[in-house]
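[Automated response] Your request has been received and processed.

Submitted sequence:
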Amino acid sequence: MSLTLTPLPDIPLIQQGDDLGKAILMALERAEITLLDGDVIVIAQKIVSKAEGRLVNLDDVEPSPEALNLALSTEKDPRLVELILRESKQVLRTRPGTIIVEHRLGFICASAGIDHSNVQEPSDRLQKGAEWVLLLPEDPDASACRIRQQLQEASGAQLGVLIIDSHGRAWRLGTVGISIGLAGIPGIIDLRGQPDLFDFKLQITEVGAADELAAAASLMMGQAAEGTPVVHVRGFPYALRNSSLKELLRPREMDLFR
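Generated structure:
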């Protein structure tokens, strides 16, 4: 068994309204890759958000009283804090410089996934001194489904599409790639009841397959100025099937830490 991950070259800087499916197909052609059944395309959240117009100018944000109070205790820009609150179901932990929330999509992350890095001011809205931030896609599962349908129609292959972001983790240092939107690829592989090498039946093993692939693809994408936001994957070791982000989220009644 082998797993091959290939960053697609020369993806252009994405702006609102750009056709991501078309950009990916062109990059595949440049890389001389023909899509086959079982292939997976992994896409960095950032270009999905940009294409969907999720850029926000902080000058356009009016902080609420709650945001002003939270900004004081966390030493953050009140306008940014206002966006964090809008994108969150609940604030879970805070300290100076950090706000940990339950995002409206259901996962736990810092600052509601709002990003400053590699965020370029839109060319049609140039404004000297403006500060722009990027929100996560409104519905990453739906975004993955749309891109998957476009790629499948163009190629005739049965594919998976994964949208990923970089998150920190409780109790461990460093960010890793995780799935925030998926289509046609399993989130969880349930191995309970299967035998191990010594015929012991597994009791609790459920593999976070989509997150494992997200972490691998994130290594290929990089975190700074690499400019490779799309990775082609061949050899994913599990059968493709319909899934969604919800499959990866631990139900609240099973959460021992909140």
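Summary generated for your ticket: The radius of gyration is 19 Å. The helical segments are 20-30, 45-51, 65-74, 78-86, 140-155, 209-221.
If you did not submit this request, please reply to this message.
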